[in-house]
Every structure is written in C-alpha cells, then in structure tokens.
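G., before I forget:
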Amino acid sequence: MSGAVATAEPIGRRNWLKPSIARERRWALWASYIVLVFFAIGFLAPPYFELVTALKTSQQIGSGKDPWFTAHPYFGNFIGIITNPDFQTFFLNTVKVTLIVVVLTLAMSILAAYALARMRFFGSHAFATGVFLTYLVPESLLFIPLFKVLSFLHLINSTWCLVLVWPTLSVPFCTWIMIGYFSSIPKELDEAAMIDGASHLQMLWKIFIPVALPGIIAATIFAFTVCWGDFLYPLAYLFTGKQMVLTAGIVSDLIHGDVLDWGHIMAANVVASAPPVIIYAFLMDYYIAGLTAGATKG
Amino acid sequence: MADGTTGISADALHGFAPSVRRGGLRRFAQRRSTIAVLMCLPLIALIAGLVVYPFFYSIYLSMLSRDATRFIGLFNYRYLLRSDTFDLVIFQSCFFAITAVFFKALIGFILAHVMHNISGRDQRIWRGLLLIPWVIPPALSTLGFWWMLSGNYSAVNWILGQFGIPQVAWLSNTWTARLWVAGVNVWYGTPFFMIMYLATLKSVPDQLYEAAAIDGATWLQKIRFISLPMLRNIISITVLFSLIVTFANFDIVQILTTGAPADTTHVFATYAFQLGIQGGNISLGAAVSLFIFPILAVFSIFILRGVGRRAREGM
C-alpha cells in the first residue's frame, strides 16, 4: 500500500478513506441496533406486561411475585372475558358504531374531496383550509357544548350519539387526505372521460375511487382507529352498560364492578386492542403513506 | 380575455343562437358549482352543526351562571383565574404539553435516524414493532400503565426492587405523577414523530450524507448541517401539531391520575370534565375547556403556513 501511495497519490488517499467510511458505517449500524433494542424494550414492555397479567390467575396476580413472567399461562381470563355478556355488548356496540361511522366518513369525505379537488366553486379554497382547521380542533374543546346539543336531541346515554359526534373527528382529516390523492390524479384522465360523456358521479366511481384506492384505504384505517380508540365522548355521554363501547366500558364499568380483577381487565384490554393492531400489521404501509401526505395526531 | 366585449355583444344579441349557447355554458358552469356545493353539503352541515355552532355555543354557555338561567358575563373566567386550583391546572397543562412534546420530538428524531441507518426488510420489522404503542388505543394502554404503577407492589417497583432501590408510590407524589403522565404520553406519541421524520429523511438525497462523510463530517455535524435544515419544516409542523393535541389531552391524565394527588395533575380537559360533566356545572366546564382555544388558534396559523410550504415544495 505504501508503494501505491508513492506512485499515485489521489488513488492512495481514496483507498485510505474508503475503509474508514465503511468502518464508520459498520459502527453506525451496530450503534443503531443497540439504540433500537433499547427503545423496543421500553416501547413493548407495557403491552407485554398486559399480556402476561392477562395470562395469570388472580392468586398469581395477588401474590405480587414475578409480575413480569408466568411459567404456566392461564387462559381462563380470556375465556371469562369473551363469554362475559357486558363485554360482548361493549364489543358489539363498538363494532356497530365504528362500522357505521367509517362508511359515513368515507361517503362524506370522498364526495367533498372530489368537489374540492376538481370543481372550483365560490369559496372552495377557503373551505378546504377550513376543513383542515376543523381537523386541528381537539375533542376536549367541544365536548361540553356537544353534551348540551346531544341532550337537546335526547341522545345522551345512547350509543347512537357517537354516530353523530365521531364523524367530527374522522371526516376532516379523511377529506384532507382524499383531496391530496385526488389532486394528484392527472387532469387528462377526467378530461378524456368528460369528452366521452361521463357524468361527475361516473367519473368519481369509475376513475377517482379506483385510482385513489391507497388513499381510501388510509382514510378508512384513520377513521377506524379514531373511532375505536375514542374515550372522551363515550365517557362523557354514555352511562349504562347496555350503551357502552369498549374503551369507556372497560375503564369505567369493568373497574367499578364488584371486584377489581386485573387478570380480566387486562384480558379485556388485549382483546379490545387486537383489531387495530391486526389492521396495522397488514395495512401499515398504506396508512403511513397517507399519513405522511398530510400531518396527523400524535 | 376579451370577456368584457363578448359580454356586451351577448347582451346585445339576446335571443339569438350564439347567446343561447353562452347561456347554456353559463348554466353548465352554474350546474357544476351547484353539484360541487351539493357534494360538500354533508361536510358543511357536519362542520357547521357539530363544530362551529358548538364552539360559539360554548362561549355563550361559559357566560351563564351555574343553573344556566342568568347571564353573568366573564364572571366564570374571573372566578377560574382567581382560584388556586386553576393556577395548578394552567401550570400542569403547559408543563405536560411542553415536556411531552419535547421528548416525543427528540426521541422520534433519534429513532428516525437510527431507523434510517438500517435497511430494507429489517427496517420494516423494527418500524412495525416501534409503532405498536401508537396503534393501541391510548385509553387502554394507559390502563395497563396504571396497573404497572399503582400501589407499593407495582410491577415497576418490583423491577426497582431487583436492584435494591426502595419502593416509590409513583402516582401519589405530585412530581412523580406529573412525570409519569408526561412519560405515558411520550410512550404513546413518539412513534408518530418517528414515522413522520423517517418518511422525510427518505426524501433527503443520500449524496448529501455521502459527500459529508467524504469531507470527514462527524455524525453530529451531519445532523446539524444536513438533517436539521432538511427536516426543519416537518419538525415545526409536527411539534406545533402535537402541542395542540397534547395540550388538549384527556385520556392519559383521566385514567392514570384523574387529577390526583390534590388536583396537581389536572389538565384543562380533565378539569373541564370534572367540573362540567361530573360536577354538573356546564358553564364553568365550558369556560375551562375554552382555555384550549388560544393555543389552538395561534398554532394552527403556523401549521397552515408550514403545510402550505410543504405542499409547494412537493414533499
């Protein structure tokens, strides 16, 4: 190598530099994995702890020994919670209302996004901005006046009130993502369709929805997550077990029940958290693509 | 371009064939915008009826007396600002939001870089794992945290006990409770920052980092002179955004402490809930939750500017 340096200076220097960059890269890779492992442990410890607690008998939990491990997993809590009629009611209520709101959200946001992305009308630009601003409004700013509005409509302590209030959380952002996706569709496509005599609805149905399907998937996941996980509205507006949904039901009803059975509560937690986790496991990429196109809650 | 002149001629030739065609066109344009408004109508109704109207109604409510019979102006606000408990609520809301957002952004920034170093399949797996806290409904995971922390024989104390550290009543001391409330929010929100920064990092050309490496830049210099400038816009959007959301957070405080010990961990949302829904004093509750509005108003202007810039840059 020293001979090479004597004959060709620049090449020699590069040879000397290259391994150092490679070494630096290797170090960076190792350091990255160490940091990742450290944070992964911290991030996954709470869900892991919930799962372990759910797999223990109440004697094991009460003994306070080894809270982080269990040698003999016990599935009684899961069986107990799945056959618990209260929990079944919460689950069915949540599924029912969430599905309705997701469908409503998609219908409202796709129609509005199409109009805002493609058809200019008086104040459409300001309205699009307004939609984004609405998305920034947190639910805790409005839950008290909405309580009065809902009691005027006799919807307090009825699961159906969520069909009314949840779209305020989901529709603005879904509209915003869909405007982005629709705007990215080339104008030539709908001009061609227009010349062929397609109506607006046909264009929407035959061109925009199929082409913007990734965006629609992202919007669906967003609407689903927001509804499934919402806690403030159900807690503020629902009181009796028959009307409850999962989040508020587990927190208020199961806890304030007769005994504080942590194995049961954690099993309920795991079952209630499963649907969003499963959906993300399969559709994460769509969601992240849609998310990074806008900017969302966290 | 020659709109004015053709307009006059169309008027003059009223009733003739060309003007009929113009009228048809105009009607078509009208119909187009009518359709557009109709398509937006559900959304307009939703926003007007369930966001804008409740907001103004909330202002009106906050000026009523407890039994909602008398108009008392700003008395509720004066009452709140003079009460010691509300001072604590204001302090804790700011402390909670600023601490949590700072650490979410910092850890998210670090994790995004770390994640960017590893490639392909591995990155997907790690990203999936680290996203889990953000995927679980926060109300449910906070319940798990509560069980992890409550009581002297909590799971966290058990770990400390293995290292011979004495037990701490985490949720009964003001400052440990405040830190845990913020900590749970950091745990929940960091993955969001991570994926936003990671997505933006991927759009930064690799050549920039390679050129810096050849010039002998340290990793700190690479972050200082490449990552930070390239990510500046998305950092400001996410931080402002998260400040609004965290400032208005409800779930975590409500479940973890419900304001205890002695109202020192209450934030605006939980205090409004306690006064307005549980205590039945709707007007005072409305006044408390309206304190969220100023920060929302100021920050959303900056967010709009940032999002506009992002759209122009096509990122």
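Chain A has a mean pLDDT of 84. Residues 83-293 of chain A form a domain with the MetI-like fold fold (CATH 1.10.3720.10).

More on Monday.
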